[in-house]
Design brief:
about 475 residues; 18 helices; mainly alpha
Length: about 475
């Protein structure tokens, strides 16, 4: 079920109507039933995976907390991790390895046709798998006590607003909100509707208007040349931002209406001035998960520069493969690992050289933002390309031929990309995205009316999936 569908709107009206009149325990029962119905709308068979993950991690969490022997605690943690990664690995990577095995065996006259079967990828499996894994890991580390209430834990795993594309919540924050009675405040209702409205603008206006150009660019890369390649990359950058941030805003807004707070997942990422700054702004729930459960356990910044660079590269490569089993995602992870290392290596001498120019700080900051935005766009070239050869084609075409600019593409990027820049420029001045952009009530009301008008005039009202559903 898609947020941008009539079915979901009707579903939420019914669920919310019941939710606000029920007492706490029955609210949780409703949330669990609604979440399973929401997810099962795509394919009810995959509900068994969520149920299995829930039962395994609930049991392992209790066992880890109950055991005093270190080796037995580690055994139960291993059961949790292997179970989750086993399910994730089979459904997400089986086809990739089977197909590549067939390619390797082909030249020597062998075949792996027996292994090449179609394994459907359950939506959101990477998100809820990482969420449940963090629960048992935190219990093992002693930073979290397990819940003994199975209903509470089942809602934590399957909570429908963020089930399919995050944010990847930590049990420390979300579980207490599920366990305790919820008092919905006026501010949550106000902020919730504002986030939902913004989310629909980002998805239906920004992302959906960019989508046709992005699709054309990566389906037929040989047809784009000169500045049209660059404009197409701009469209891809704004599409994925509008699509993913749009989903997150809608999820957070819906959750606020229910009295439950979800973490902020985006913080004006295209205003980043470096790779580390970008990952502190983009998909924050994943980047912090990778930091806490992969980078730091690998050694983090300890052990000298060589070890730190190794840890950074491993983390980013696995982060790339988290998105999918494809060489393009591997290349995307390698790219981000490389620029993280290069920025750390040359940050001090480059900063010293730039200071000698004695330019105003505002000019230097703007130049750093623009420069890194284009680095990010090259990353999206790797991310969106269907094959690595397409990356080469588009890079050559960017400089190889000079063709007239596609006016429709240019105007779309200028109009809707410009809208993103304006909104994020206003938001950059505020510490949180709960804080209203405009000070007066009349100004805020006017902005909401303007947003609805933009949505009605330029929104593309089709039930297209969000990009991160495939992860």
């Amino acid at each position: 079920m898609l947020f941008n569908s009539l079915e979901f709107i009707l579903f939420f009206i019914v669920v919310y109507g019941l939710y606000i009149v029920l007492k706490h325990r029955y609210q949780n029962v409703l949330l669990l039933l609604a979440s399973y119905f929401f997810y099962g709308w795509w394919d009810w068979r995959f509900l068994s995976l969520i149920a299995a993950s829930t039962i395994i991690d609930y049991t392992c969490g209790l066992k880890i907390a109950a055991e005093t022997d270190r080796w037995r605690r580690r055994l139960w943690l291993t059961v949790s991790v292997i179970s989750n990664l086993g399910i994730l690995g089979f459904f997400k990577y089986f086809n990739f390895f089977a197909e590549n095995l067939d390619r390797v065996l082909g030249p020597i006259g062998l075949s792996a046709d027996w292994a090449v079967v179609t394994i459907l990828l359950p939506m959101g499996i990477s998100f809820y798998t990482f969420q449940t894994m963090s629960y048992t890991i935190d219990i093992y580390r002693g930073s979290l006590k397990p819940t003994k209430n199975f209903l509470t834990f089942a809602v934590f795993v399957s909570y429908f607003p963020q089930l399919v594309a995050g944010p990847i919540e930590r049990a420390k924050k979300l579980l207490p909100q599920i366990e305790q009675p919820r008092n919905i405040r006026y501010q949550q209702i106000r902020d919730g509707f504002r986030l939902i409205l913004l989310g629909y603008v980002l998805k239906l206006v920004i992302a959906e208007n960019m989508a046709p150009f992005t699709k054309a660019l990566f389906n037929s890369p040989e047809d784009f040349h000169g500045l049209n390649v660059l404009l197409g990359l701009y469209a891809a950058a704004f599409q994925i931002y509008g699509d993913f941030a749009g989903y997150t805003n809608i999820a957070r807004g819906i959750s606020k209406l229910m009295g439950i707070e979800l973490m902020r997942n985006f913080n004006q990422p295209y205003f980043a001035v470096s790779p580390s700054d970008f990952w502190g702004r983009w998909h924050i729930s994943l980047s912090t998960w990778l930091r806490d459960y992969l980078y730091i356990p690998l050694g983090g910044n300890r052990g000298g520069k060589a070890m730190m660079y190794r840890n950074l590269m491993i983390t980013m490569v696995l982060g790339g493969l988290w998105h999918g089993a494809a060489l393009t995602f591997l290349a995307w992870g390698l790219f981000h690992g490389t620029i993280l290392i290069l920025y750390r290596q040359f940050e001090v001498p480059v900063s010293a050289m730039i200071r000698k120019l004695k330019l105003p700080d505002l000019v230097l900051h703007a130049a750093a933002v623009i420069f890194f935005f284009h680095i990010t766009c090259f990353g999206w070239l790797l991310f969106f390309s269907q094959r690595l050869i397409h990356v080469k084609v588009l890079c050559l075409n960017l400089f190889k031929h000079v063709e007239p600019i596609d006016v429709t593409l240019a105007l779309t990027v200028l109009l809707f990309g410009g809208l993103v820049v304006v909104l994020d420029t206003m938001r950059e001045r505020h510490a949180t995205d709960e804080e209203p952009l405009l000070a007066t009530r009349s100004a805020r009301l006017a902005s909401y009316c303007a947003a609805i008008a933009i949505l009605m005039l330029f929104g593309v009202f089709r039930s297209s999936e969000f990009i991160y559903f495939q992860f």
